[in-house]
């Protein structure tokens, strides 16, 4: 198996997870994150193109990756960002394959180093269909961190089309899924949530 073969019921069963469905689990940050002017300009120029092309690759390159780069910049490059990375953690459990995006709390950029804090799964349109895959990647991140003796309390995930975002949280064996779908734009709302996830693992 690989990450993409996991449905939500399958990953919950295979890894004995407790599922909690609800509203936002990310607190509203009192301090706003400043959206870089270049990101505003870039998305103003290319958002409609990404929507018109409507492929996972176009949405990843023209919306998601620029936003994640802004997260890295907001945290003074003290985190690392990986795109299209092989993340083979446990072949016997099916935790192998490519993650669309990984954010690690290590500044090391040549290879993925623990602790992995956030995984991002890009989808062309079906967010619900990507939930099982994202949860499997989050479980892999948890196992990856444990193997490196560099664990953190929480692994976050998001499934996104670039213009719509849904957020997940893994703590111990409980996976919480925010059923709200957050739109982009506005940019600041999504950027603020992403920065929080990396800042407060």
Structure in words:
The chain has five helices and eight strands. The protein has 201 residues and is α+β, with helices and mostly antiparallel strands. Strands 1, 2, 3, 4, 5, 6, 7 and 8 form an eight-stranded mixed sheet that branches. Strand 6 and strand 7 form a beta hairpin. Helix 1 runs parallel beside helix 4, helix 2 packs antiparallel against helix 3 and helix 3 packs across helix 5. The model has no long low-confidence stretch (mean pLDDT 94).
Question: Can I get a quick summary?
Answer:
With 201 residues, the protein is of the alpha+beta class.
Features:
201 residues, alpha+beta, 8-stranded mixed beta sheet, 36% helix, 24% strand, globular
Q: Helices and strands, in N-to-C order?
A: HEHHEEEHEEEEH
User: Which descriptor suits the 3D outline?
Assistant: globular
Largest sheet: 8 strands, mixed
Distance between the termini: 28 Å
Number of strands: 8
Low-pLDDT runs: none
Helix count, DSSP H or I runs of 4 or more residues = 5
Helix percentage: 25-40%
Strand content is 15-25%
Mean pLDDT, to the nearest integer, reads 94
Structural class: alpha+beta
CA radius of gyration is: 16 Å
- Give the oligomeric state of the chains in this entry, treating copies of one chain as homo and distinct chains as hetero: single chain
Give the SSE layout.
Blueprint: H1 8-14, E1 18-22, H2 37-53, H3 56-74, E2 80-86, E3 98-104, E4 116-122, H4 131-147, E5 154-160, E6 164-171, E7 174-178, E8 182-183, H5 187-199
Parallel strand pairs: 1-7, 4-5
Antiparallel strand pairs: 2-3, 3-4, 5-6, 6-7, 6-8
